[in-house]
Amino acid sequence: MSAVAPALRDWVPSPAETQARFAGTVRDLTLRHIRLWWETPSHPPLLGDAPGSRRQRDNARACERLIDEVARRIEIYPQSEVERRDWRQHVKALVQRFGEEHLAWPEGYRALLFDDAFYQTTRAFVREARAFDAAVRADELLQALRNVWIANSVQMLLDLPLELGPSLFAYSMLYPYTDNVLDNPRIPPADKAGFSGRLRRRLAGEAVAPANPHERQVFRLVEQIEWDRPRSQYPEVHASLLAIHEAQAASLVQQGGLTGPYENDLLAISVAKGGTSVLADGYLAAGTLSAEEAEFCFGYGVFLQLIDDLQDVVDDQRAGHATIFSQSAGHWPLDRLASRLFRLIARVIDESPRFNGPRFAQQKDLIRRNCTFLLVGSIAENP
Length: 383
What we know:
0% strand; Farnesyl Diphosphate Synthase; 383 residues; mainly alpha
């Protein structure tokens, strides 16, 4: 054994072996979260006493006053950096006071939500995005920023600095750049397939010539990730990027028109797409993850994707995009699906063994509240 042990100790899996093993992990996580969805009760949750109409009116008026005051202060944004710091602190105090008095924000939530690092990463991202592409639209920036904020919440849980590294910037920018092609109904399916195939080869490390200026920008972002997280040192980072790409490619079947309940496994498509999305955030943030950390990131992505699907139910129906919500809407009430999603959020957050214990209570509360607001907003927009 003494002659064999050094060889075993020095053995490094090939990229293909790493990808195959990672693909197996993604399959296991997908099946696990599909099972978790079906095991989660769908009866409406007990949310406590509803606020009275007087309190609702008071909250609505306070919200209008807050919006007016913030808008007024934006119009008098100061020129000097010293005055800008005071301006930011005052606006932050306005929003914090509103949250305390009308949204029952706990102290820990306020401290995390208004951490200067969140502001700095947002500011840095917008600055870098404008430098990368001066023509980037505001809605594209917001789409990419949402991923930055999700990655920041993962960094927060993992006790990592809240920062925007080159690879996190590049991955977040890939969202609007790839969606502009894959979600555009005016682009022929053959062109989408060609773009998807070339991008997959590029993500696998091949030297691929871009077919157009848009692809050149996409490949520049991939190159930035390779520079910041070299393939030889971070093989799982690049395996995770391939995994989200495979899930996005598989989700194109959702664009084939609204289908019958048993034609496509729409739940599995959304689970894989959402789970691999935040799984990649976790690997980009940390470089490597434990099995329990990977499972949490995957579950986090699952319920975010399902919230997105619920939010977009009307637009998806109009466009002929099939999800578990657009397929059901108009035929059955969505109440029990929304209730199950509400409970799924709690299960993913509360049942993670990696983030169990009081030291993670505030961070998990921040994620829970933000995602509950997203879910409630989606329900309110789709009565």
